[in-house]
Amino acid sequence: MDDSAVAAATRPETGGVGTLAGGCPCGAVRFAIAAVFDCRYCHCRYCRRTSGAPVTVGAVVKLEDFRLTAGSLVAARRGSKGTEHRCGSCRSEISFEFATSMGSFLSIAVGLLDDPDACPPCFHQWFSERLRWLHVHDTLPKYADDRIPHPDTRRHAAGLAGRP
Predict the structure, then answer these.
(1) pLDDT tens digit string along 55-71?
(2) CATH of 3-157, one of 2.40.440.10, 3.40.50.1010, 3.40.50.720, 2.170.150.70
(3) At 21, phi and psi to the nearest 5?
C-alpha cells in the first residue's frame, strides 16, 4: 500500500477498524495499522529509560493488524519483557512485541503515527511507578501494574457498552 492510499483510508477509533499510517523519524520505515486494540499511558521504569520521557503513550495492536509498508526492522530481545523492533537505518524503536494471556501484541509509540490525535490513550498502566512530580489530573482509569482489564470490560464498567 502506498502512502497516498494509507492517508486516504479511514482513521480507527481505539477498538475500531480502519487504517492508521506512521513511520520512523528518518522516513526509511513506514507502516500501516488496520485496527487499534487499546491505547495507554505507560509509567514503568523501563519505558522511561528506553524513551527518555517521563511517560510514554503506546497504541496496542494485534500482530496481524500491523503491516510494514516500507523499510526493514531489526529485532532485539528486551530481557524477559519482549522484543523491540527498530528501524534498520536510524535505529528508532518502531514497536515493542510482548505476550499476554490474550496473545501477543505490539506497542507502537503514538508519536510515530502520521495522525497521533487519532489514537488517544484510554488508561494509565504502571501508575505505581509514575514520577512523583508528574501530577496527573485526568479521569482515565489508573492501574498500579500491567494487569489491565480488557477494553470491553472497561467500556462496560464505564457505561459505554456497545461503543468503540
Answers:
(1) 999 999 999 999 999 99
(2) 2.170.150.70
(3) -120, 155
